[in-house]
Amino acid sequence: MSADKVFHSRSEGIPSEGVKDQYADGKAARVWKKYIGDSNQRTQNYKDFLTGLLRKHNCVKVLDVACGTGIDSMMLVDEGFKVVSVDASDKMLKHALKARWEKRKDPRYDEWVIEEASWETLPRDIQSFLPGATFDAVICLGNSFAHLLDDYEDQRTQKMCLENFAKVLKPGGLLFIDHRNYDAMIDSGATPGHSIYYNCKYPVDIKTSVLVVRGKPELVALDYCIGATADGEISEKSEFRLCYYPHKLDKFTVMLDEAFGNKAQHSIYADFKPLDQVENPAYYIHVMQKSL
């Protein structure tokens, strides 16, 4: 269902056609960049989890399919990986391109590829600027995949995009993809204020709304309010809304397995720990290993 038919899901200036760019007005992109900080503010648990598994499986060439402002990609470039970064939001990519320019004296950044691409046409888009390319790993983290809503009420677009992620992986390659614990959010109507991904230094309030259509949760809206700071770095209160499809763990697990033809090795983590070690996680992280 298109969320805008029944619920004001977008900040002013965001288009309602095609794959939704929820950062299209530029404001949310700027504030989001402040919220998540730079690569130095990524949590050590996240960095160790991601780079540890990449190295364990001898991954070198990594595709970041939701690079946003480029923070995760920069972390991986700094760690010596060869990174290709794509995003559907040109407003977010502007920040990534600026970051690459600022690092132009670092030879590791000469090979960082940044391009605009859509999940719906990902294999074709990749071929347009890197013919024949496949990747050791694909990452889609930070609750990014949940931005893709369910306009047809059968999740066909989400399934197609997951299949596209699998197509650009080499045999034996890894897909890292996550989602918030929407099962708990739907039950409680609340969102954890902390993030397992970044150490935000600003005061943040997140208001949670759950849209239920014909008895089924169809959308979760998060209203972010980031307060002004005493040092003047954020001069006034900033507010924006982001909307997500509420993926439930069991159904998303099945959908991922099917995207890989039920032949991939599928591991699930809770806040970067084994699933049985965290009772009520903020995030679930899925790691798919494509069959050889």
UniProtKB/TrEMBL annotation:
Q: Name one GO biological process term.
A: one-carbon metabolic process
Q: Where in the cell is it found?
A: Cytoplasm
Q: Where is the Methyltransferase domain?
A: 62-173
Cited PROSITE patterns: SAM_GNMT
Report the enzyme's class at the first EC level: transferase
Q: State the GO CC annotations.
A: cytosol
User: Magnesium among the record's keywords?
Assistant: no
Catalysis: reaction(s): glycine + S-adenosyl-L-methionine = sarcosine + S-adenosyl-L-homocysteine + H(+)
> What are the protein's UniProt keywords?
Cytoplasm, Methyltransferase, Phosphoprotein, S-adenosyl-L-methionine, Transferase
Which Enzyme Commission number(s) are listed? 2.1.1.20
Q: Which GO terms describe its molecular function?
A: glycine binding; glycine N-methyltransferase activity; identical protein binding; S-adenosyl-L-methionine binding
Family, according to the entry, reads as follows: Belongs to the class I-like SAM-binding methyltransferase superfamily. Glycine N-methyltransferase family.
What does the subunit comment say?
A: Homotetramer.
Q: What is the protein named?
A: Glycine N-methyltransferase
Organism name: Parnassius apollo (Apollo butterfly)
Taxonomic path: Eukaryota, Metazoa, Ecdysozoa, Arthropoda, Hexapoda
